[in-house]
Amino acid sequence: MRTRKIPLRKCVACQEMMPKKELIRVVRTPSEEISIDLTGKKAGRGAYLCGKVECFRLAKRSKALDRALKQPVGEPIYDELEKEFIAVEEQFLASKEMAGE
Ligand SMILES: [Zn+2]
Question: Rounded to the nearest whole angstrom, what is the distance from the C-alpha of residue 32 to the centroid of ligand 1?
Fold first, then answer.
């Protein structure tokens, strides 16, 4: 049986290629707001992170989001995103379990 091609994206923190649905998307909207996009459908420039807070912290330390979003993110925004990330992490892992993975 041939496996279907799964769209892969690279985590900006650990550089690992992962199926898109296993990554959390951070988006910079056209109005320059940076937020976590769980739908994966928001307009704007996106960056992907593994659904792990360790990867978020790595991205924060290495300023990987600044590079991926082509905009300086800044400490306060990283802090905000980190809180949001921790909040969505559980939701994200729960939804993966529900999908039987
Ligand atoms: Zn990662």
Answer: 24
